[in-house]
Write a structure and sequence with these properties.
Layout: E1 2-4, H1 6-9, E2 17-22, E3 31-33, E4 36-43, E5 45-50, E6 53-58, E7 62-65, E8 71-75, E9 80-86, H2 99-103, H3 118-132, H4 138-159, H5 168-180, H6 183-198
Parallel strand pairs: 1-3
Antiparallel strand pairs: 2-9, 4-7, 4-9, 5-6, 5-8
């Protein structure tokens, strides 16, 4: 299994966050990372296999992948992702005990309590841009980035609530997920696994 290395995505070990946008996502072989990632599905749909468990993902989904976890995608459409990469080698200076907030995001898509509307995705992109923007003052930069990181997590925590369940796209998405987690997902998973092994 391939491991994605820090050096490819972070300019320095001291860089706390990095941004990677795939349009479309092309990484359909199993891999892990030397960093954590918070993944936003901007458009399209596809199969996401996390630790051997397949699940359908589409526009509006958000999920968290720990660096030691293995995953890959199979594109059932044009899957476009925004990945916020989190440097786990660099501990936060001011914030602690964020795990309860991350736990609300770190669930399989079919178990998530909510879904991001287009307006919420736009707000998240703007927050991520602030989080990953360069700065010249290291001390203030650390404090400011941690405030923005907390702001993003709180925003996601609020958005992934029952408020979005009434959205028509969300209801259709959950219906597709229920139908996709059976034999179809298993068949796709087997075919993708065979293709990756052949490589």
């Amino acid at each position: 299994m391939h491991t994605l290395c820090m050096e490819k995505y972070f300019s320095a070990d001291s860089q706390p966050f990095a941004l990677y946008v795939s349009a479309p996502e092309r990484n359909n072989c199993e891999h892990s990372h030397e960093f954590d990632e918070l993944v936003f599905v901007e458009s399209g749909h596809g199969l996401h296999v996390l630790n051997g468990q397949p699940g359908f993902v589409q526009q509006g989904d958000v999920f968290f992948v720990h660096g030691q976890e293995s995953h890959f995608y199979d594109r059932l459409g044009t899957l476009r992702l925004t990945n916020l990469l989190i440097n786990t080698r660099r501990p936060l200076r001011y914030l602690s005990n964020l795990q309860p907030l991350l736990n609300g995001i770190n669930r399989p898509p079919d178990q998530q309590p909510g879904w991001l509307t287009p307006q919420e995705r736009l707000a998240c992109r703007q927050t991520i841009a602030r989080l990953t923007a360069p700065s010249s003052d290291a001390l203030l930069d650390d404090a400011a980035r941690e405030v923005v990181w907390l702001e993003l997590l709180l925003s996601l925590h609020r958005s992934l609530s029952s408020a979005s369940r009434g959205h028509t796209h969300f209801k259709a998405h959950r219906l597709i997920q229920k139908r996709s987690t059976g034999t179809r997902c298993a068949a796709i998973f087997c075919s993708v696994n065979a293709r990756c092994i052949a490589r």
